[in-house]
Amino acid sequence: MKPIANKKQEFGEDPLTVRETDHYVEEYVESFVEKWDDLIDWDSRAESEGQFFIDILRERGKHKILDVATGTGFNSVQLMKAGFDVTSVDGSAEMLSKAFTNARDHGFVMQTVHADWRWLNKDVHGKFDAIICLGNSFTHLFEERDRRRALAEFYAALKHDGLLILDQRNYDAILDKGFSSKHKYYYCGDRVTAEPEHVDDSLARFRYEFPDKSVYHLNMFPLRKNYTRRLMHEIGFQKVETYGDFQETYKDADADFFIHVAEKTYHDES
After folding, report:
1. Could you give the angle at the alpha carbon of 109 between the alpha carbons of 260 and 137, nearest 5°?
2. pLDDT tens across 258-268, in order?
3. Where are the beta strands (DSSP E) in the chain?
């Protein structure tokens, strides 16, 4: 799992043609991963999120959590601090290595698994109370069959009354009205710019520039909110509640991020 040093991002002669699920592994090179926490700013993000995810999980009695988009470990560490039993998964070995180090620096030994979501249950065993897939990570899947396969794997890894929490950027607003973000919640680093360089119906190419003038890119699929909700229902999740920037009541156009909370079991609230 040792990262390849000094490897550079490669998008070929025409980066806009790179619309493949598997390419994300090439995008998270070591030098980009090392700067990722400058983009997030753990302290600012912790302040903006507050107890949102912790409260949702506690209110529903969830304890055993699978973080399938660990990244550099922010959400896994926050949940471990709050007393949850967390297993941390990522498809990027570079990200997992950084996450393990970050967790150790916070006094935790992270349980890590290097796995592809499409074959999650081959590498991750047991059933979980809840799965979190955060940080806009689901948009790395470019093909609908990959999205369906991943959601089915998430569904299978959950207990009968399990919960999936999945977030995404507000691509509806970006596609329909153009990009506008204050980076108030997810990307809180104030010295880093993160904005789309190109957007069409099947590609959102984001450009990240850091204080040292280094530039990186991510190619992602611009998921529309209702499309994501529909897929979750079609895979078998009975109830999907969507929040805008951690708020239950919001205007679609104003939210930077949507957070979907999907339940396997139907609860009759009458």
Report:
1. 25
2. 999 999 986 65
3. 64-67, 85-90, 111-114, 128-133, 158-169, 193-200, 203-209, 215-220, 239-244, 257-263
